[in-house]
Amino acid sequence: MDHFKAVYESAKEWALEAGRNLRDSLGQQLHVDYKTSEADLVTEKDREIEQFFIRNIKETYPHHRIIGEEGMLAESPYHPADEIV
């Protein structure tokens, strides 16, 4: 259970840092791409923040699996019931 508390604390710290990053970028011009339609957009900030989380997870919890919204997919098949995703 201590492992999950550590994961929670790491995720909380990273989320707060990502929030500060986004808040600091308010008012800046952002480049917007469209994934599937005009309603399905993604900015470079979306990708930057996702990479921030991926980097931190891989460095801190290298055995955890990652599935991300903006393109990070599992490298190989995984079993969510048997792994931390």
Automatic annotation (TrEMBL):
One Pfam family per UniProt = Inositol_P
Q: Which domain of life is it from?
A: Bacteria
| Protein name (record) | Inositol monophosphatase family protein
Which species is this UniProt entry from? Paenibacillus konkukensis
